[in-house]
Amino acid sequence: MRLLYKLWLDYRGRAFGDGPARLLDGVERSGSLRKAAQDLGMSYNKAWRILHAAEQRLGFPLLDRSVGGTLGGGSQLTPEGKDLLRRYRALAEEVSALLEAAFARHFGDWRDPVGPGGDAVDPASAVPSFEWHHEPDEDGGPS
Known about the structure:
By secondary structure, this protein is α+β, with helices and mostly antiparallel strands. The protein contains 5 helices and 6 strands.
């Protein structure tokens, strides 16, 4: 059994999570949103829409974009984008450690299930996985 969860920042809707973070990581490495999208197996248009939606919700730009030409175009993270990515990665690391420790405390004594005749069964197929995320109630407060 394993613990699965999703983490995202919510501000006027889902504003930032692992998808946009992976795109920003890719832009930081490659200097190109197109290359970052390609490396993640998504179209440039989809990557642009994801980051544009995040920028609209957050209220600040994540990327400085330069249009192509003889020198070629490119993108780099804005100072706000770098700060957001750094904070999100630190939060995700801390949340992961806390959740893994809690999971080990509460489920660490569970053993992998055994099938008929004593054969080991793939735990992923035998035991349902759990996914946790926080959803605000209708008025935007905690549910």
